[in-house]
Amino acid sequence: MGDEEFIMQERGRRDCYRLLAACFYQPSKELFLQEDLFTTLAGLLNRICPQAAVHAAAMGEAFARYDHGELLVEYARLFIGPYGLQAPPYGSVYLDEGKGVMTDSTVEAVRMYRTEGLSMDEDFKELPDHLTVQLEFMYYLAFNEVRALENAETGTARQFSEKQQRFLKRFLGAWVPRFCGRIKDGTENTFYRSLAECLAVFIEHELRVSTAPEALKS
């Protein structure tokens, strides 16, 4: 794979993390359709992980069939409560089973954010191990990798690639498969089932495939 082709691939990976994070915010018909989120995601995945692209396309079809109220109700039932969560979107629930939230794995994740000079936005009311936070952190690391590649800063690009691999293996790769299984077991909503399939397949692909080409390896 040539340098330019690899940079294009990494841009696609970067943007997939951002768009997948957006899918797990409170559903907004206007925002999701206006940004053509699902078509864009499917197009990116088609080049990176075609198996996940199929589910992204199915998400778009399903999203159009539900009215906004149905999506909001199902989102709350799955991820918010108040009468129990079908699929808690917090890493600590799965990584520190039985210990609740804000546990050792949460503290470890926060330490990694701070190492990169990041802190939680005061307006963000969720916990720091929420799925969207961790997906967006991967986006941040990939963004910096791509910027370094564009500037021919191979050493810096390698560092950010390695940080992505460490975070993926320690966090998202360790709990997202079970989280996606909880979604699929807990809903008949075809949008959220397709979203769970898409995320699970993408993360599995990310775990399996090294993102660093020979030029970035030590």
Q: What characteristics describe this protein?
A:
single chain; 218 residues; mainly alpha; 10 helices; globular
Helix and strand layout, with pairings?
Layout: H1 3-23, H2 29-34, H3 37-48, H4 50-65, H5 68-79, H6 91-95, H7 104-115, H8 131-150, H9 154-186, H10 190-208
Helix pairs in contact: 1-3, 1-8, 3-4, 4-10, 8-9, 9-10
Task: Give an overview in words.
The chain has 218 residues and is an all-alpha fold. The chain is 72% helix and 0% strand. It has 10 helices and no strands. Helix 1 (3-23) crosses helix 3. The two termini are 17 Å apart.
Order of helices and strands: HHHHHHHHHH
DSSP strand count: 0
Radius of gyration: 17 Å
Q: What is the overall shape?
A: globular
Helix fraction? over 70%
Quickly describe the structure.
The chain is mostly helical and 218 residues long.
